Amino acid sequence: MTRKHRRLVIVLVGLLLVGGAAALVLMALRENIIFFHAPSDIAADPPAAGRAIRLGGIVEEGSLERQADGLTVRFRVSDFAHAIPVVYKGILPDLFREGQGVVAEGAMGEDGLFQASEVLAKHDENYMPPEVADALKKAGRWQHYKDGAGGDGAGEESSY
Amino acid sequence: MIAELGHFALTLALVVAVVQGIVPLLGAWRGRPNWMAVAEPAALLQLALVAGAFGALTIAYVTSDFTVANVVRNSHSAKPMLYKVAGVWGNHEGSMLLWVLILAIYGSAVALFGGNLPPTLKARVLSVQAWIAVGFLSFSLFTSNPFERVFPAPLDGRDLNPLLQDPGLAIHPPMLYLGYVGFSMAFSFAVAALIEGRVDAAWARWVRPWTLVAWCFLGAGIALGSWWAYYELGWGGWWFWDPVENVSFMPWLSGTALLHSAIVVERRGALKAWTILLAIVTFSLSLIGTFIVRSGLLTSVHAFATDPERGLFILALLTITIGGSLLLYAWRAPTLKGGGLFAPVSREGGLMLNNLLLSVACGTVFIGTMSPLFLEAFGHKISVGVPYYNITFVPIIGPLVAVMAVGPFLAWKRADLAGVLSRLKFVGLVSFLAGLGVYLLAGGGGVLAAVALTLALWLFLGTLLEWSDRVKLLRARPAESWRRIKGLPRAAHGMTLAHLGLAVAIAGMVGAAFWKQESIALLRPGESLTLGGYEFLLEGVSEARGPNYMAQRGRFRVTRDGELVALLSPEKRVYPVQNMPTTEAAILSTPLRDLYTVIGDPDGTGAYTVRIYIEPLVPWLWFGAGLMVLGGLVSLSDRRLRVGAPARRPVASRKVARA
């Protein structure tokens, strides 16, 4: 086995592996990329029902209600321009609060209700998911959130 | 006063680092021994100064000196002492200081124990280390000074994030950093070797122990972090493919590849350029691991700093370090002479395949972790879900585990694959039957779980077989076997332990992934819930009080067939200073499964949301990780790898080069 021969074998095995992995990666990325949507995005261009997305915004004040089974919760995620109703079954993260930023993963149902499979926890009181901050800025409501500490008047603005 | 002393010491350390980065390098170039000799005392002085600064910050924390802004932001007088100390590195500025301190410790370890290094190599290694220190000391001083004062001083601090107030997490960052920064040694040796234009067996023998040290710490750090996430976050999961987990996992993967490729350099003189590249890549990934999450570029729990100035500084540092070393590599690597020849089926070939698979696996994690960052540049906000990693990472690691059992049987240069496989056929048969049994008997797992367990058992038994063959277990007299066990190099025992550890850990992962049971319910005191044959009776919920928190403590009486198994007390805590609730799960670990209980919020009518998990084999995960780290440590105690022991023997290296 000469040096050249060995190199050829190594390169071939390497190419095979890298090629296989690249195919896997492309396939996986096509199916498992989860796009982030703000409530306004969904209002403007509703994503296909059942397609996994992330929804981020502020939990609207006074919108949290617990269903009779005690486990299912409903709330509305708002960017102060639009609000999307969300339903979720399970324990909410420790730092889930009305008037605070939240990111929910799940899919839109046929009925316009966002079925959350996961509600993402923040790990810090003051931490605002950057996507949510951007979404608020885009909706022109960032200052509104900062000034009002996320609270005032969120309810009357929902236009969903 | 103490804070100013700390600040001053840190500034002096930067000056010393600049000197250490220039003078020995020039000395090595011009052949001036007295210039090269500057490196050693400079490295020790740098350690003393950085340690002084670190000590000053620690004193400020321990004495709750609220004139220091950093202490105000991250400490509180009522916090237990352990977390006052841990608070030093529980924030951006302090953790940078810890990073630099560990860098200085490694640097002075070379100065102290590198007695046998050729003087030019030693001078260059220490200079490269000093340049890294210059970069991060200036980052610390100019953008993240931990010693800033506040005036007027507040009465009390704002406390440390309660999630971080946990013994596991108190030692998690130092472990992780000892790992990350430990790879700086491999990096410095690689860059120094590129400057010298020479890599030989002795070089590999110096690099391996450092890599091994870093690998052990990083592994322990990752395992600790995962364990923390498991019991502290209350979700019953131990790995979420979160960016911050991924960035610590990537250097571990490439570091594992580096450990194995360095063996080929040491024993056969081959794969030199590749090994150098791996060393550079591993440390680059460590840097990315420490800083990308910090810079706020990736959404993560650990994003301390979202200050754009810091982000730019970090980006510049990463570009210079990674880009510069890769340029140097492109320029100098072709001058490295190729090593011994080997057939594709050989120990070298096996280790090469290991490297390929690990690198490709690392690449898929990299793409998954970084693609949100790249796509954001085009205006898309995305995240990459767990299924991505299941589809890409797992199919690459599967074959790796399959060949891992075979690799150690292969002879150097040219191996007889048919012969090796025939020795393994019994192991293969047993593993296959066991997998089949799992598939048929234990419902719910499906084919994937059975295949994964087959692979784990195959690796476990194959590794045991290789070890017992080498010591002639049961085939020679016990005394003879014992003599062989003692005679076998420690590194061989270490390899066996680490490979066994991986097999055990895989079994744990499979158990948790496929047979986990979960139940969420609303319980009133006196009501119970049955899951997996266990009955969980909520006896009551009471108020409890800790040093800096209040808690609601649930009491679960867990029984199986009427017999008491355990009393578990999960808590829901509130830390008033930050007004932050945390969940404290109560877990009973048994050899086969964990019983995991969480108590949630009351519903207002006297009932509580509770969550129960039954997590099969999870304890094996921690045990397996422990075995792997132990394997690394045992290997480290090998005489051949003892730091500084090997002298460069020109005869040996020439022989390898000619072979």
Description:
The complex is a heterodimer of chains A (160) and B (659). Chain A has 160 residues and is α+β, with helices and mostly antiparallel strands. Helix content of chain A is 35%, strand content 27%. Chain A has helices at residues 3-32, 39-44, 130-138, 142-148, 154-157; strands spanning 33-37, 53-59, 65-66, 72-78, 83-89, 101-108, 114-120. In chain A, strand 3 (65-66) and strand 4 form a beta hairpin. The relative contact order of chain A is 0.17. With 659 residues, chain B is an alpha+beta fold. Among the domains of chain B are: 1-165, Up-down Bundle (Four Helix Bundle (Hemerythrin (Met), subunit A)); 517-618. In chain B, strand 7 and strand 8 (580-584) form a beta hairpin. Chain B has helices at 2-30, 33-36, 39-62, 69-74, 81-86, 92-113, 119-143, 167-196, 201-232, 243-268, 272-291, 308-332, 347-377, 386-406, 417-441, 446-470, 478-487, 490-515, 618-636, 650-658; strands spanning 382-384, 517-523, 528-531, 534-545, 550-560, 563-568, 571-575, 580-584, 586-589, 593-602, 608-616. In chain B, 63% of the residues lie in helices and 12% in strands. Strand 1 of chain A pairs antiparallel with strand 1 of chain B, so a sheet runs across the interface.
List the helices and strands and how they pair.
The complex is a heterodimer of chains A (160) and B (659).
Chain A (H helix, E strand, L loop, with lengths): L2 H30 E5 L1 H6 L8 E7 L5 E2 L5 E7 L4 E7 L11 E8 L5 E7 L9 H9 L3 H7 L5 H4 L3
Chain B lengths: L1 H29 L2 H4 L2 H24 L6 H6 L6 H6 L5 H22 L5 H25 L23 H30 L4 H32 L10 H26 L3 H20 L16 H25 L14 H31 L4 E3 L1 H21 L10 H25 L4 H25 L7 H10 L2 H26 L1 E7 L4 E4 L2 E12 L4 E11 L2 E6 L2 E5 L4 E5 L1 E4 L3 E10 L5 E9 L1 H19 L13 H9 L1
Antiparallel strand pairs in B: 2-11, 3-4, 4-5, 5-6, 5-7, 7-8, 9-10, 10-11
Helix pairs in contact in B: 1-3, 1-7, 3-6, 6-7, 6-8, 7-8, 7-12, 8-9, 8-11, 9-10, 9-19, 10-11, 10-13, 11-12, 13-14, 14-16, 15-16, 16-18, 18-19
How many helices of chain B does DSSP assign?
20
The H-and-E topology of chain A, N to C, reads as HEHEEEEEEHHH
CATH class of the largest domain in chain A: Mainly Beta
Radius of gyration of chain B: 27 Å
Share of helical residues of chain B: 55-70%
Oligomer: heterodimer
Distance between the termini of chain A: 72 Å
Helix content of chain A: 25-40%
Shape of chain A: elongated
- The amount of beta strand of chain B, in percent, is 5-15%
The assigned CATH architecture of the largest domain in chain A is Beta Barrel
Structural class given helices, strands, pairing of chain B? alpha+beta
Query: Which second-level CATH architecture of the domain at 1-165 in chain B applies?
Result: Up-down Bundle
Instruction: State the strand order across the main sheet of chain A.
Output: 2-4-5-7-6
Major pleated sheet of chain A: 5 strands, mixed, barrel
Q: What kind of sheet is the major sheet of chain B?
A: 6 strands, antiparallel
Radius of gyration of chain A: 22 Å
Fold-level CATH name of the domain at 1-165 in chain B: Four Helix Bundle (Hemerythrin (Met), subunit A)
Q: Write down the CATH class of the domain at 1-165 in chain B.
A: Mainly Alpha
